[in-house]
Amino acid sequence: MNSTTRTLSIHDLSSISFPFGKIRIYFVLNGLNISRYLLCLISFDRWMITSRDVGIREKSSPELAR
């Protein structure tokens, strides 16, 4: 291993600490899943707001969200 590769890998804690690497992967994957879930909820809310049915539009109100 040359000195350039070694200095770059020193700052990556996942190459040194196995638990840190596992925790980092856990948070990255959960972050991706949560963002997909929220995107679906946002899309559903946009559909409700733009619906022609008054009953559906009324269900997408800030009062009901609280």
Q: What is the structure about, briefly put?
A:
The chain is mainly α. It is built from 4 helices and no strands. The protein has helices at 3-10, 18-49, 54-59, 62-65.
Task: Describe this entry's structure for a reader.
With 66 residues, the protein is mainly α. Helix content is 76%, strand content 0%. It is built from 4 helices and no strands. The N and C termini lie far apart (57 Å).
Helix-strand sequence: HHHH
Give the amount of beta strand, in percent. under 5%
Distance between the termini: 57 Å
Q: How would you describe the shape? A: rod-shaped
Radius of gyration: 22 Å
- How many individual helices? 4
Number of strands: 0
Q: Helix- and strand-based class? A: mainly alpha
Sheet with the most strands? none
Question: What proportion of the residues is helical, as a percent range?
Answer: over 70%
- Low-confidence stretches are none
Chain-averaged pLDDT: 80
How would you describe this structure in keywords?
66 residues; mainly alpha; rod-shaped
Secondary-structure topology with pairs:
Elements: H1 3-10, H2 18-49, H3 54-59, H4 62-65
